[in-house]
């Protein structure tokens, strides 16, 4: 997904979830007593979730806010939109990379990420990198991403259709690594522990979003579907129609409802999905060494 402005216009679900979760976690995040926090966001896309919901939580004198994304286009767009913000910038970063750039290592008090990690197949590498981004004196992270979503099943069905198979050969790269997990909480908790996090709390939230009208659904698909940019544009509408047919075949269409804007009947689509909401803290080096020498896993504030 590269089309920043398209995504920015069709990310109601992502914005809704980030807003609610940040309201809950605003006081759990461990803000510095000197108000000089540094925060890095992973997979910021066009930057509006970061700037609308995370930026207002930072203390006025924050040290730096870094939005990152694997997409050059997203980073360019976000830098243009938010160039007037002091101590704020967007950079290209692949969170699943083998070698984290040295200038980012150990520099941040907080790492946040919304709706990105389901795009990253190598969660082990991503969590190792998130751990390394945090300061050695300690820091915390709030990671929100899709464990499962019907969109991934729709991709599988379209991939089996020979009309689209050619464009979707790598379909598995775009399915959340936890989509088929029998216990996503346990699996992600294990990955956090392996990355070095001692205190963590992982929740699986079951949510439902209702798309009012076929155009709303199609706009949301256009904003995130990685296959469309490979398909000739004259076939986009056909692909989207096939997408909607699969959704209907999966019984995700609700009864027709009255559209108050034009008095016509319109379709409604329901999307039941599961979100991982994970909060984890990196302990200061001295404490971690002490605890590991003692073979102790410490509990604090209800965290594991
Ligand atoms: C659905 S958007 C989320 C954007 C924003 N965080 C939000 O909540 O609206 C996912 C973003 O993750 C980015 N992304 C995908 N894989 C990534 C990776 N390996 N490293 C960093 N960003 C990645 C995509 O380019 C995209 O901009
Ligand atoms: C009813 C149905 C299948 C809806 C799917 C809607 C949709 C476009 C979900 C996208 C999920 C996703 C991968 C979001 C993202 O990364 O931002």
From TrEMBL:
GO molecular function (one): farnesoic acid O-methyltransferase activity
Coiled coil: none
Annotated GO biological process: juvenile hormone biosynthetic process; male courtship behavior; methylation
Record flagged with keyword Methyltransferase: yes
Pfam family, one: Methyltransf_23
Highest taxon, organism lineage: Eukaryota
Annotated EC: 2.1.1.325
Database matches in Gene3D superfamilies: Vaccinia Virus protein VP39 (3.40.50.150)
Catalysed reactions, as listed in the record: (2E,6E)-farnesoate + S-adenosyl-L-methionine = methyl (2E,6E)-farnesoate + S-adenosyl-L-homocysteine; juvenile hormone III carboxylate + S-adenosyl-L-methionine = juvenile hormone III + S-adenosyl-L-homocysteine
The UniProt record lists the keyword Transferase: yes
InterPro entries (alphabetical): SAM-dependent_MTases_sf (IPR029063)
UniProt keyword list: Methyltransferase, Transferase
Homology family: Belongs to the methyltransferase superfamily.
Function (record text): O-methyltransferase that transfers a methyl group from S-adenosyl-L-methionine (SAM) to the carboxyl group of juvenile hormone acids to produce active juvenile hormones in the corpora allata, the last step during juvenile hormone biosynthesis. Also able to methylate farnesoate to methyl farnesoate.
UniProt protein name: Juvenile hormone acid O-methyltransferase
The organism of origin for this protein: Drosophila grimshawi (Hawaiian fruit fly)
Organism taxonomic ancestry: Eukaryota, Metazoa, Ecdysozoa, Arthropoda, Hexapoda
């Amino acid at each position: 997904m590269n089309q920043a402005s398209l995504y920015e216009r069709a990310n109601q679900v992502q914005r809704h979830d980030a807003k609610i979760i940040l309201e809950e976690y605003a006081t759990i995040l461990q803000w510095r007593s000197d108000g000089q926090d540094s925060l890095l966001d992973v997979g910021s896309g066009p930057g509006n979730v970061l700037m609308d919901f995370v930026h207002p939580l930072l203390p006025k004198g924050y040290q730096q806010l870094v939005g990152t994304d694997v997409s050059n286009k997203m980073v360019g767009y976000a830098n243009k939109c938010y160039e007037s913000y002091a101590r704020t910038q967007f950079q290209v970063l692949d969170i699943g990379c083998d070698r984290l750039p040295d200038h980012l290592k150990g520099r941040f008090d907080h790492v946040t990420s919304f709706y990105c990690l389901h795009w990253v197949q190598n969660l082990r590498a991503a969590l190792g990198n998130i751990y390394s981004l945090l300061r050695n004196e300690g820091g915390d992270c709030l990671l929100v991403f899709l464990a499962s979503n019907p969109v991934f099943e729709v991709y599988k069905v379209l991939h089996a259709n020979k009309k689209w198979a050619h464009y979707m050969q790598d379909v598995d790269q775009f399915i959340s690594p936890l989509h088929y997990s029998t216990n996503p909480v346990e699996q992600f908790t294990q990955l956090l522990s392996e990355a070095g996090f001692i205190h963590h709390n992982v929740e699986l939230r079951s949510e439902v979003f209702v798309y009012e009208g076929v155009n709303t659904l199609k706009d949301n698909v256009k904003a995130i579907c990685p296959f469309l940019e490979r398909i000739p544009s004259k076939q986009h509408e056909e692909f989207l129609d096939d997408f909607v047919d699969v959704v209907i075949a999966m019984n995700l269409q609700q009864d027709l409802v009255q559209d108050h804007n034009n008095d016509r009947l319109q379709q409604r689509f329901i999307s039941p999905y599961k979100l991982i909401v994970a909060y984890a803290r990196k302990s200061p080096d001295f404490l971690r060494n002490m605890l590991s020498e003692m073979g102790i896993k410490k509990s604090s504030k209800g965290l594991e």
